[in-house]
Amino acid sequence: MEDAVAVAAPFLSTATAAGAGDEEEEGFFAVYDGHGGARVAEACRERMHVVLAEEVERLKLAAAADATEDGGAARWKEAMAACFARVDGEVAEDDEEEDAAEQTVGSTAIVAVVGPRSIVVGNCGDSRAVFSRGGVAVPLSSDHKPDRPDELERVEAAGGRVINWNGYRVLGVLATSRSIGDYYLKPYVTAEPEVTVMDRTDKDEFLILASDGLWDVVSNEMACKIARNCLSGLAASKYPESISGSSAADAAALLVELAISRGSNDNISVVVVELRRLKSRKKGSRQNGR
Q1: Is the domain defined by 3-288 classed in CATH 3.60.40.10?
Q2: 39 Cα distance to chain centroid
Q3: Does residue 23 carry a pLDDT above 50?
Q4: What is the pLDDT of residue 245?
Q5: How far does Cα 202 stand from its chain's mean position?
Q6: What is the pTM for the complete model shown?
Q7: Which of 6, 96, 106, 195 could join 181 in a cystine, given CB atoms 3.0 to 4.6 angstroms apart?
Q8: Domain boundaries, given as residue ranges, for the chain
Q9: CB-facing half-sphere around the CA of 165: CA atoms within 13 A
Q10: Cα–Cα distances in Å, from 161 out to 7, 41, 132, 177, 199?
Q11: Quick check: 284 pLDDT over 80?
């Protein structure tokens, strides 16, 4: 099992969120899909939310509630970019102290900061964030696959090549074009995240973060349908042997079981966040190693 998940709610310091009552607190949620070993994913789990909170404080960002106001989106993107770069740099320093094999270890990172009025998502790799709004599945990230036209152009402009070797891979090796770590593939593989800032509405239902072990075999729409049924209490009657409740953890577990039943051979990590109940801290995660 090379994946890792992280949940920190709230994750900002009291000083950063000064003046924002309990209802203004942000939650941090993330999935890290490791490859070549679990070390980088574990480092991300331990460090990413800590470093992001430091960058938010350094940039004097207000609560995530203000992410789309007065240039807040641009500053959140700056904070995310600085955070990913710092964590990637820490991993690179560790690589230099280890043997050459450690330089082949890496991890994707899909990170979400959920506030009462905004959601900020940073993505590096092919894990994915999808949320349900009014019954419609809305992707909040775009997978960094080597054959994605703009990613292919970026890799080749840096001097690298994308080779179709059992799927499109950077230098015929890595099936994602962005990641934390993978020091031996830089600069072709970058740790720079793509950042999405989305306003919250009263139609928002839940957020799903998952590694590609889920998305390889389950569509955005199907994942949201399954999670919605579970959170509404409908899944227990359809899957009585495996699911007995209607919590976010149950929804995450059901999505993992669905991916396994559809033949996913990859590690599967899923985090489900109930957006309507964030204030009561209802969220859940599930992992499966294959």
Answers
A1: yes
A2: 17
A3: no
A4: 78
A5: 23
A6: 0.89
A7: 106
A8: 3-288
A9: 11
A10: 36, 25, 36, 11, 38
A11: no
